[in-house]
Amino acid sequence: MVCSRLTGLAAVKHIFSIGHSTHSYEQFLRLLQDAGVTAIADVRTSPWSRYLPQFNQDTLRERLKDAGVAYVFLGKELGGRPSEQRLFCDGIADYEKMACSNGFQRGLERIEEGAHKFRLALMCAEQEPLDCHRCLLVGRQLLSRGFSVSHILSDGVIEDHKCTEDRLMAVTGQASHDLFITPAERLNLAYRARGRKVAYSEPETPKNAAAE
User: Fold this and answer.
1) In this predicted structure, what is the pLDDT of residue 211?
2) Which of 49, 66, 83, 132 has a CA 20 to 30 Å removed from the CA of 93?
3) Mean pLDDT calculated for residue range 107-112
4) For the domain with range 14-161, which CATH number is right: 3.30.420, 3.90.190, 3.40.50, 1.20.58?
5) Nearest one of 1, 18, 28, 55 to 171, comparing CA atoms
6) Residue ranges of the domains in the chain?
7) Measured CA distances, 73 to 111, 143, 155 (Å)
8) CA dihedral 175, 200, 112, 169 (to 10 degrees)
């Protein structure tokens, strides 16, 4: 389900998200401008791309500056690849644990401060919001802080997060009503299942290497 384009959104208490995907810089900038975005919060853990140099941090910052769009890197606080082992579960980044960490909470506070000055968009690499922590982790936590959240899709449509959650429930098999589980519980299960599917996983150590 894809919602129609949103209009008239206030900058304060509203956050966009966008994935740079394989867009050219010009396509990416057009998506931002069409949505009225005036600042980017880069939530990539590693702010560069070997195959898409237009999205390397320094290059992107300068080009956005020339276009009148501010840039801030928040990958250390809000990135999807945690540096602390305690934030993993069975080798997979655990979004629930990450959301409770002090660094993550500081990152949310910076987003909240920035949203009072700019029409702000979280940026990561993945095209699909349901494949990315900017939606499943950061966007979800911003909702709990009273923000409205929407996602700029690759075709320019802006999808409200409620519609994204409807799609989340469908792809995780939680869309059907259950007499024994509340809708909120089903939504939590959906977030957990999708997070486990798409979150960063630690590379497995070869058995012979571990033995050495």
Assistant:
1) 42
2) 49
3) 97
4) 3.90.190
5) 1
6) 14-161
7) 11, 21, 25
8) 0
